[in-house]
Specification:
Length: 358
C-alpha cells in the first residue's frame, strides 16, 4: 500500500511558488483545492485523516497535497492542466471531493469548506486593483516585508524630488502649454487611463502631442503587433526602433515634445500624488494588459510605474516586448535606492540622444 505524502506548510508553499512559475513557462494552468474543517467540528483529528485519504484518492500521481495555516487547511494542487479544460477540471475535482467526503464521513461533511483557486486567473482591472491570492503567491508577504523600508525611502524621495521639479520647471510648463494650445485646437493636458501597480487604474497626465478626437485604433493595432510579434521580426531588424513611427495623429509640436520626452513632464504630478514613481516600469493601457501572458503581468504587480526606468535607459524602443518585460522584472526584483539614482542620472543622456523616441 502506497503511503500518501502530505507536505508540511513551508515546503508546500515553496512547491506552489515553483509550480506557478512553471505554468508561466509552459503555458499550462494549475488548480488548488483548499479543504478546511470549521472550528465547531467535533473530532478534528479524525476528520483530517479522512481529508488526507479523500484527496489522495482524488489526485493523480503528479498532483500534490500539503498543509496550510497550521494544519487547519489541506490543499490539493492539480498541475499541468490544459487551460481549455481548466473550468471542467475544477468542477469535477470539487464535485468528486464533496461526494467522497459525504460517503466517508456522512453528516460531518457539512462542516467541511471547499475553495478552489486557479492560476493563471482571468486578467481583470477594477477600481480596487488586483490583490495576488496569498495561497497562490505565498512568497509575497516575506518579500514585501523585506522591501518595506526601501519603499518608504523611495516614496519620500519621490515626493521631494517631484515637488522641487514641479516648482523649478513651472516656467517651462507655461511655455509648452502655450505652444500646445497654439499648435492645434484641444486641451493642453492629455489624460489617459493607465494600469498602475496591482493592476489598479489611474489617470496619467501628459502634454497633448496629438490632434484632439483622433482614432486610437492605429495604436491599438500596433500594440497588438508589438506584444505578440516583435520578437518574431527578422534578425536584421532586431536593432531597429519598435515604436509607432510616422503617426499621422501627432501634431508638429507633438513630434518635438515626444522626441525630447517633454510631453511626459506632467507625470510629475502623478508622482507627487503617489500614482507613479520617478523610476519604474511604464504603465500599460488596458488593451495592452488584456494581451499579456501571465508572466508579463508581473511588471505591473511587482513595482510602481515610473516616468523613467531600466528599459528607457538601456533598450527604450529598440527592444522587443519580451525583452522590455525582462528588463522591468530585473529592476522590480532587485530594486535599490542606488539603482534608482543611476537610472535617473542616465536618463538625460538618453533623452538628448533621442534613440527610440518618436
Amino acid at each position: 500500500m502506497t503511503t500518501t505524502v502530505v507536505l508540511e506548510e513551508d515546503l508546500f508553499k515553496d512547491t506552489i511558488t515553483r509550480e506557478r512559475k512553471r505554468t508561466e513557462r509552459s503555458g499550462l494552468s494549475m488548480a488548488l483545492l483548499l479543504v478546511g474543517v470549521q472550528d465547531g467540528s467535533s473530532d478534528r483529528s479524525e476528520v483530517r485523516s479522512s481529508l488526507v485519504e479523500v484527496l489522495s484518492e482524488l489526485g493523480s500521481e503528479t498532483d500534490l497535497i500539503g498543509w496550510f495555516e497550521g494544519r487547519t487547511l489541506l490543499g490539493l494542487l492539480v498541475i499541468d492542466v490544459d487551460p481549455a479544460q481548466l473550468e471542467q477540471v475544477c468542477e469535477r475535482v470539487e464535485a468528486d471531493c464533496r461526494r467522497a467526503l459525504s460517503a466517508r464521513i456522512g453528516q460531518a461533511a457539512e462542516d467541511i469548506s471547499l475553495r478552489m483557486r486557479v492560476y493563471p486567473e482571468a486578467c481583470q482591472v477594477g477600481e480596487e486593483g488586483y490583490d495576488e491570492d496569498p495561497f497562490l503567491f505565498p512568497e509575497l508577504p516575506a518579500r514585501r516585508q523585506a522591501a518595506a523600508s526601501f519603499h518608504m525611502v523611495k516614496r519620500c524621495f519621490d515626493i521631494v524630488a517631484s515637488g522641487v521639479l514641479l516648482a523649478v520647471l513651472s516656467p517651462l510648463f507655461l511655455v509648452i502649454a502655450c505652444l500646445v494650445k497654439l499648435s492645434s485646437p484641444g486641451p493642453v493636458i492629455f489624460r489617459q487611463t493607465r494600469v498602475g501597480q496591482g493592476m489598479k487604474p489611474f489617470m496619467m497626465c501628459k502634454f497633448r502631442s496629438m490632434y484632439a478626437n483622433n482614432d486610437h485604433g492605429i495604436h491599438q493595432n500596433y500594440v497588438s503587433w508589438f506584444i505578440n510579434s516583435s520578437d518574431k521580426a527578422p534578425a536584421k531588424d532586431k536593432g531597429q526602433v519598435f515604436k509607432l513611427t510616422s503617426d499621422p495623429r501627432i501634431t508638429p509640436i507633438g513630434h518635438f515634445l515626444r522626441k525630447s520626452s517633454l510631453d511626459e513632464l506632467p507625470q510629475l504630478c502623478n508622482v507627487f500624488c503617489g500614482e507613479m514613481s520617478l523610476v519604474g516600469p511604464r504603465p500599460p493601457l488596458w488593451y495592452e494588459l488584456q494581451q499579456y501572458k501571465p508572466w508579463h503581468r508581473h511588471r505591473v504587480l511587482e513595482a510602481k510605474p515610473g516616468i523613467t526606468g531600466l528599459w528607457q535607459v538601456t533598450g527604450r524602443s529598440r527592444t522587443t516586448f519580451d525583452e522590455m518585460v525582462r528588463l522591468d522584472l530585473r529592476y522590480a526584483r532587485a530594486q535599490s535606492f542606488w539603482t534608482d539614482i543611476k537610472i535617473l542620472l542616465a536618463t538625460p543622456a538618453e533623452v538628448i540622444r533621442g534613440k527610440g523616441a518618436c
